[in-house]
Design goal:
The protein is an all-beta fold and 592 residues long. The protein contains no helices and 50 strands.
Length: 592
């Protein structure tokens, strides 16, 4: 540039932000994995017959990253030791991947250096990769780009943080050079769009002189015109190992063709017996990076799997089909549990017949050369022919019954039906069907707080809330006001509802002579007392539970004590004869 004062960065006053140096070595060796399989699958074992060929396959992956920073958090990560106050707000557009980038603009101080923390890269091949973009020369700050031959960006390394060596120089005209050899010349060589004014990714291998246990990397701009000029940015910085994996297959026991080098082996026939194959992965650039995985091939081991029909009839042949694995010279040891062989030999298929009903067990072992299979056993049930099924069932008058053949009947009697192959046999059904009448609707009456049904048995009492649980007697003692009715059930058939009685209970506190009868304590625990003061005439009383069942009765004159300890917890009604009327008292027996 012309008519601008040139600052030599090595002479410019600057404030440099330093972070405490830490040598990064935890991730110097990549984390790698390998997965071995057979015949393009991930299976780790396979049983085959002698002479069958297989192909061993492998896939591997490695994480080669040592350090990295993509600036997507809007601030520098732990990779950096020193920065020159760059911006992360994308003042000249987003980074190469559309996210935040590091931009060296008009707020950046001198020297314009980006320096990493030291990393341990004593062994192997290491690459420094990053996205780079130079601003276009002549644009407004902070997007004004370099144009002179000494204003480009140089990637450098140092093993002592004092002496810096060049790895590559990005000259403003879009060309790469081994180093910046134009310091101080100030000749304009770039304007407008160049290779470097758009984001591109670059990777450079660290030379042998840069391999140490504390190597730093620096993006360095030797000269700039002013704070408002010569701006640039980087993104997606990574320091990673360059990897070169070799996969070698070994076999145990040893086999012709192994060891074999390559991800996948050619097709081959494994040795007879058990063969263990291991895929070993090593990295030629980093001897410490290894991984391995193992598969097992069982060759010549026969299997004894076969299929049967689990249920047949006496006059039906059982079909047995072998579907296991065995060589052409295998010996099949069948046991048909006393069955007669109608047809079949060797591996089958077989037709087997049994003359009596029962459960039979078929077993098989297979011998192939010197190797034997495990035994397989399957059960077969042989049924009588025909099988007679006798059923007893009933319906209510007006209902229909569906027979096994799907037809409907509504008359009592014995019905016969034949179902082909029921339980694998033609079976005869004998159905004894009863038809019961619908019982007549019962009639209920009221006597005080007692309701009575004219039906002796089969009653179920209801109130306005529905069924009253446990209330199935001929009588029911009313505890609360409401509407009550009963339904009669006989032989599983239910009547219509009875007449309904609306009951309103009035609890009488005095008898017809105006004398007060006391029943206490309430709730009661051990003893219940019934007392009428100044009365020497004997009075009859009864105590019933909520189902109308009598639990205690007696006579008293003046006062009586009733042992209540044996009463079950719950609600009880005390009925006391009081002249021409009766009095009712509700008491509660407490839970023990």
């Amino acid at each position: 540039m012309v008519n601008k004062f040139k600052y030599f960065m090595k002479k410019a006053a600057s404030i440099i932000f330093f972070v405490a140096s830490v040598i990064y070595s935890d991730n110097i060796f990549s984390q790698c994995s390998i997965s071995a399989g057979i015949n393009n699958t991930t299976t780790d074992s396979l049983s085959i017959t002698s002479g069958t060929t297989v192909m061993l396959v492998s896939t591997n992956s490695c994480d080669s990253m040592i350090m990295s920073d993509n600036f997507n958090s809007g601030r520098p990560g732990p990779l950096w030791d020193s920065l020159c106050n760059p911006s992360f707000s994308n003042p000249c557009g987003s980074g190469a991947d559309g996210t935040s980038c590091l931009w060296v603009g008009d707020s950046s101080f001198f020297p314009r250096d980006l320096i990493t923390k030291p990393v341990n890269i004593l062994t192997g091949s290491v690459q420094v990769c990053f996205d780079l973009r130079l601003a276009i020369q002549g644009q407004n700050s902070p997007c004004e780009g370099p144009d002179e031959n000494d204003e480009g960006i140089e990637l450098q390394y140092s093993t002592d943080n004092v002496t810096w060596q060049s790895m590559i120089y990005f000259r403003p005209d879009g060309r790469l050079f081994p180093r910046n050899q134009w310091i101080g010349q100030g000749i304009s060589v770039g304007s407008g769009n160049t290779e470097f004014t758009a984001w591109h990714n670059y990777c450079f291998t660290v030379p042998p002189g840069g391999m140490s246990d504390s190597t730093r990397f620096r993006w360095h701009q030797e000269q700039v015109t002013d704070y408002a000029y010569d701006h640039w940015g980087i993104d997606n910085v990574s320091i990673k190992m360059a990897l070169s994996q070799i996969i070698t297959w070994t076999s145990s026991p040893s086999q012709l063709g192994f060891p074999y080098t390559g991800s996948n082996t050619p097709f081959f026939a494994p040795n007879l017996g058990i063969s263990i194959y291991t895929a070993h992965m090593i990295d030629t650039l980093h001897p410490g990076i290894t991984a391995s995985d193992t598969v097992i091939v069982y060759t010549g081991f026969p299997t004894s799997a076969f299929s049967v029909l689990p249920m047949i009839c006496i006059d039906e042949n059982e079909t047995i089909q072998y579907y296991g694995t065995a060589g052409p010279r295998a010996i099949f040891n069948w046991d048909f549990d006393g069955g007669t062989t109608v047809s079949g030999s060797g591996r089958g298929p077989y037709q087997i017949h049994w003359s009596t009903a029962g459960i039979y067990h078929i077993s098989l072992t297979v011998q192939d050369s010197i190797l034997s299979s495990a035994q397989t056993t399957e059960a077969v049930t042989v049924n009588q022919q025909p099988l007679t099924v006798i059923l007893y069932d009933s319906i209510c008058q007006g209902q229909f019954y569906t027979l096994p053949d799907g037809s409907n009947v509504n008359a009592a009697g014995i019905y016969y039906d034949t179902i082909p192959y029921y339980h694998r046999c033609d079976s005869l059904f004998e159905i004894h069907l009863s038809v019961y009448p619908i019982p007549p609707s019962p009639v209920i009456t009221q006597n005080g707080n007692i309701l009575n049904s004219n039906a002796t048995n089969g009653n179920q009492w209801y109130d306005q809330n529905g069924i009253i649980n446990g209330a199935t007697g001929q009588e029911y003692t009313i505890l609360t006001s409401g509407n009550y009715y009963v339904i009669l059930t006989e032989n599983g058939c239910s009547s219509d509802t009875s007449n309904s009685i609306n009951v309103v209970l009035y609890w009488i506190e005095e008898n017809d002579h105006g004398r007060l009868i006391k029943v206490y304590p309430n709730p009661v625990n051990d003893e219940l007392i019934i007392e009428e003061e100044n009365n020497l005439k004997e009075i009859r009383f009864e105590i019933e539970n909520t189902l109308g069942q009598l639990v205690y009765k007696g006579m008293f004159a003046g006062k009586t004590i009733i042992p209540a300890a044996s009463f079950s917890p719950g609600v009880y009604i005390v009925k006391i004869e009081a002249g021409k009327a009766s009095e009712f008292k509700k008491i509660v027996k407490k839970q023990e």
